[in-house]
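Dear Dr. K.,

Following up on our conversation at the group meeting, I've run the structure prediction for Late blight resistance protein R1-A-like from Coffea arabica. I'm pasting the input sequence below exactly as I used it, so you can double-check it against your construct before we proceed with anything downstream. Let me know if the numbering doesn't match what you have in your notebook.
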Amino acid sequence: MASSSINSVLANIKPLLDNIDDLANIDPELVKKEKYNEGLKIVKLESKLVRTFLLCARRWSLDGWKDARLEAFLSSLQDAVLYHAQAFCALTEDGISFSDHLDQAILDFRAKFSSFDIEISTMYCSLRAFVVPSNLSALIDEVLVEFVDSLLENLVDVVSPIEAYDRGLHKIKFEALQEKLKFLKDFVLFATWQGVESSLLKDPTAGLQAVAVQAADLSYSCWFDRLFDKKECNEMHSMISELLQDIKHLHSQFHESCIQGLRSSKLSGSLQTLNLEKDMCIVGDFADSLTGILWEVLNHNTSFVVAKQDQMQMLYDGLRFLRTILKKQQEKFSGLHQKMMDLVGAAVNEAGILILSLSANETGGGLPKDVDLGFSDLLQKIKLIRLVTSTLKSPGTNGLGLIKFLLKNLTELAELDFLAHSKDKIWTVQKDFVFLGSVFEKIAEQHNKHEKLKAFWSHVIEVANKRYRYFIVLDDIWDIDAWNILKRSFPDDKKGSRVLITSRQYEVASQVEPDRLRQFTDDESWDLLQKMLFPTEPYPPELCTIGKQIAENCGGLPLTVVIVAGILATIEQDGWKQFAERMSARNVSLTEQSMNMLELSYRHVPDYLKPCLLYAGAFPQGQEIPIQRLLRLWIAEGFVKEVEQKKVEEVAEDYMMDLIGRSLIIVSKQRSFGGVKTCRVHDLVREFCATKAKEENFFQFLHGYEGLFTFSESFNTRRLCIYSKQEHFEKSRLFCPQIRCLMFFSHGDGYPRKYSDSLFIFQICKLLRVLDLGQVFLGENFPTEIEVLVELRYLAIRGMMQSIPCSIAHLSNLETFILDVYLGDVMLPETIWNMTNLRHLCISGSSGDISLAKDVHENSSILYNLSTFSNLLLFIDPSMEKILRKFPNIRRLKCELSEPEDPVPDCSRIVTMNFLSQLESLSLSLYFTEQRPIQFHFPVNLKKLTLSDFSWSMISVIEELSNLEVLKLLDDRADQGDIWDASEEEEIPEEEVGEDFHGEGADEEIRWDITEEVEFPKLRILKLSRLNIVWWTGSGDHFPRLQKLILEQCWKLKEIPSCLGSNSPLEMIEIRWCPPSVVSLAEEVKEGQEEMGYEDLQILISAKAE
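The predicted structure tokens came back this morning:
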């Protein structure tokens, strides 16, 4: 028979797939290479597509389907499968050149399997004609289920390789097709398990079979017959759309049958006992499919959904919870009493009735009365299951904590209406627990009287007063007033006595000759670990390698080393390697010693600073956090209080310095002109913050697909932080109407290029104040869904947008707008001037600028609050000054100058910025300007100036900026022999500017001669990068406060001022990619300083050119 021949081929396809998987373990690095990785994926995909066809043919050959070509085809396919299984298996054997043969094996496989294309497509047509709903059985069997499961895999696998060709249109429709098909299968299996009459299942089961064959044919054709031209894509879209319409029509036909079937099993009391693993899988899969149907219901946003939003959210959370314990946390389910297990099955059944009724009622009218009344009853059942399940894992072993936890659960149980008959029993148990709690509290109170501490302190005072020579350590002082009181007890008797104070707060330590402790080096951590583990005997040599690895993982924090040593002391030495592999900040931070130490620090943080600290803990482990980003988030959340005569950013900076002073946040990089640029949080502190944030319901943290899939506590969630791949975030379908903050950190994606199509969430989350999707690729258009988020204060997105719509002005509360653009410029609308609360407007990415409409209306608003603007494209014409005057209080400006699109003859080339009295940092690029001179008027208050593609004629203007602290000159555009100094005219006569002003073809040497009267009195950092300068001379003390000089790719430089650093605190000369002659110049400066008695100058050569 055909079915036996098919089974024989299927039996051989399995080892073929196994051999393909084994290849990844032979040479993982080689297989990671794109051509091999993609090649093996395609081989596996095509094998699965053929397997699905065989499963389809097997199912209906049992019902009498026949095809004259089938036997011959199976014989040829069998030979091919055996041959290629052996070929791939041979690649895993020793002595075979893996890389040489893998490519050819992939090509041979694809050529052979492509030859079966016409035969399989023809037989699929025959199968489609045979599988007519009116002739099909109402029964579902394992053979059909295996076919449908294989098909569902195909629908997922086929999308990714072809997605890039049609911008995700296939993906959206294939995912919809997969969901519809999965629901049909899951419903029929669940209803069959519930014992629903076969007559009620005839339509759904027949529909499942007919749709499955069509979908199998479509997925096969979509892959093997793909031609990626526009016509072919359009035809494929039409075929998928038609099939989706067929499914929708089928749904409308048997929707009532589904509801009736579920209701009949509920009314008859025929609900099945739920205990077997197979039963859990069936019920869990149906709960999963119902979650998808409910998501669609929420998407329609009907009047019913709006009116019952809170209940809908609780239902959605509850359904996700049931799905989780059935599919991902079976140990919780297995620990339930049998009656509670059965209640889970009943709850899923009732959820099916309710959700299918909602789905059938898409117009938003009223629901049947019994369904509406059942809503509340279902939510109470789910709440009961949650409460009972939560008691299976109590929070720790602390007696008082456990009692409080159980009392809370009992209180919630007493509120459930359908447990009214048990309220007396619940009250009795509550009363007993309250009594036990009071006993534990009295014990704790007695324990904390510190009698031993008082006795010890009396002894200390006695020693000090008897005038002995003493050394006393006061560890962990929190308040300087406390020390001022204590020090009276320690007289200075001139005997060499000492008192050592330690504090976590710099403000305290600064009062008594402080010495700020640095973090341990790896070697110091290793020394401490050895002494802790083996204080009196040599450290075992065989444990040195693993011990050093563990010490390095402690992150330089002595406390971590001590805690880890305590853990290792309880582990057999042969288990240390396993501990090192599992070691993380989390399993160290959750020890009692660590938690107590950090809890003490946390308690001493003022209440207004605590949310700021917890926010810092939201960033991924080990990541440097840009200070400006963190401060803007604090401000957007409303954590920063208003202080009279201070900008809110300045107050936020004070908060940051306070946390740094408390040793809770670590400085990573300093800003070039003062302040902190980036910071980080030690892994131990970060884990404490994450734990505390979750305890206080401040933040919820979801990690990877598992965390997103199992999350079911959205009702009380206010802030959500997600660490996952973009595709997992899209599939998560989170429903959190109450959240105020959503932050996403891409994990394992690199730079995602796939378009996100899961923006419906923003239509629901209308209370968002912070939306940080800077690592989600949103495509070419600004998401219109974001425009309804009128409470937004902070918005960060990524994409390829070329313009921002006028409707962005709806976000009238927006303070920070960050756009990471992959390519191209971005045009802002005229309505941007209406967004008067904007403080920071930034574009970043590989290229691109922000451009504004040049026709600025006189009556448009002035953005008084705008503090940061980058990267702004400005045209050298009258519109430039009008635009700049629209943000008079700007503090940081990064812009690029360009010639006007329609140049006006004889137009003055003057760039006036001196009216920007608050401007501190200016970055200016002249790459797109012409060779003609430009007259600049910079504000005198500038502290930092970066010039790119500049002309040396600007030097005299720069020399007038007496408040400069940082000057960066990058990519000069002149290469001719003029000498620029303070006596030069500011403007160059037009007739003197030759064709080669920008350096093409000029042979003369560029000089920068600084005349004696020129001085940069506050300049601390000077960077010269990619310049054509040859002679840089000076005869006076031009840089009295210069601390750092950076010379980068200055290939022609032959001289630097000999007086450099003679009277200044020059600390470092950093040289990057410069010839040895430049290194010699720096060494001459160092020698000159040493002759004058200055020996602190360092020369750092970070990259040397030969």
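Two things stood out to me. Confidence is low (pLDDT under 50) at residues 975-1002. The longest strand covers residues 770-777.

Best regards,
J.T.
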